[in-house]
Every structure is written in C-alpha cells, then in structure tokens.
Amino acid sequence: MKALAFWKAVAMDKSNFLESLIALLAEHRIRYCVIGGQGVNAYVEPLVSLDLDLVVAVDQIEEVERLLENLSVSARGSQLRVQIQTDPRYFDFPSRSTEQEVLGLACPSRQSKTC
Fold first, then answer.
1. How does DSSP classify residue 77?
2. 1-16 burial code (b ≥16 CB/10 A, e <16)
3. CATH number at residue 63
4. Is there a domain that residue 114 lies in?
5. I want to staple 35 with a disulfide (CB 3.0 to 4.6 A). Which of 24, 39, 57, 78 is the partner?
6. Domain annotation covers residue 115
C-alpha cells in the first residue's frame, strides 16, 4: 500500500482534507513546514499519527488565520488533527526547511533537533 493511501486509511480521511489543506497553502504561497511526528516521517520509516503539526512563516500568520477562518483545521470525514504551531522557537523553521516526501506528499519539512 502506498504511504498516502495507508495514512488516509489510518486517519479515515475520506474528505481529502490533507490534500486540500496543502493545496490551499500552496495556492496562496504560504511558507510553512511540517514538524513533529509527521515531519520525522520524511527521514525515517513512517510513524503512524493522526496529528499534523505545521509551522507557518511568522509574516504570514495573519493571512493563514484569514484563509482558515471559514475552514476549520479539521474536517468532517477525517480524523486528522492539524495544529498550527505559534511558539517563537519555531519561527525560523519554514526558511530552513527542505521539501521532503511526507506520507506520499511533497511538503516542506524540518526534523526537530530533539528527534
């Protein structure tokens, strides 16, 4: 089973929530990166998690808030839980991320120093 299909089965993502969110960020040229458990998936054997932690470039946080105002960071038909991290220690992560395959999707990713 391909990584994205496996992940979608585990997350019961029948609404294509992940793909829609990533497409929205790309369409609006939002600089972000995947961190946490899913970020680690870019560098090691897949870790199963229903959480997706994203860091957005600090100068684009207000735009992301506007974009997501009518779009929850969860969706009916998906068990995926998205967390937009706003801790200042992550602010430079998007500028230092590299595009990696994360569960079958190309996403900017940064592996935490603590992993």
1. T
2. eeebeebbeebebeee
3. 3.30.460.40
4. no
5. 39
6. no
